[in-house]
Amino acid sequence: MSRPDATVSVVVVYDSGSRGHPVLSGHTRVLAEAVARGAGTVEGTVVRLVLVAERENHWEALDEADAIVFGCPTYMGSGSAELKAFMEETLQPRFLEQRWKVKLAAGFTNSAGMSGDKLLSLQQLAGFAAQHGMIWVTLGQLPGWQASSGSAKDENRLASFLGLMSQSNADQGPDHAPPPSDRATAERFGRRIGKAAHRWVRGGTFAAVASS
Description:
Layout: E1 8-14, H1 27-40, E2 45-51, H2 59-64, E3 67-75, E4 78-79, H3 81-89, H4 91-97, E5 104-111, H5 118-131, E6 135-136, E7 164-167, H6 180-203
Helix pairs in contact: 1-6
C-alpha cells in the first residue's frame, strides 16, 4: 500500500570512534550530522540521529523507519567493532523476522587514508542491508577531482559510487576534518536519501528510487 501524504522517517545510525585518541573523536559524527541535515531539507521528512552505542534506546525507531543510513569509521579495512556488534545484534529478532525488509538503506564511512580500503566497509554495510532484504541507495554523484583542473575542494573527491566515502587527516579533530567538500557531499547524499524515501513510500513497495 502506498502512503501518498505520509511523513517519512529516516534514521542515521552511526559509530564515531577515535582509536583511543579522544581529541580526534567525531569525524564520522560530522558526516552523520551532514547526512541528517541533507535528509531534513526534504519537506515532510523526520530525521533521527542514533549513536550506535546508545542503540538500546532506539530499536523501535529503527523498526519504524522508512530508511536507515549506516555509518562508521574504517579501521584495518573493515567497519568499526561497535558497528559490527550492532549488526550482529539485529539477528534476533529483526533479521529472523525480516522486520527491515523493503526499507531503504544507505551507508557512509571515513578513514585517515584517501583509500584506506573504505570500499570494503561500504560493501560490508551493503551486504548487511541485503541480508535484511533492504533496498540500497547509492551515492548518485559524479566523481570530482579527476582532472588537473580539479582539487580536493570538489564534491565526491574520492570518486565513490556505492556510498559516501570521506577522508579525515589523522592529526586534525572534527572542527577541521573531514573537509568542507566531504561535508557537502554528505549533505547532498542525505537529500537524495530523503527524496528517495518519499518516492518509495508514495509509490509503495516497488516504487523506483528517486534520482538526486
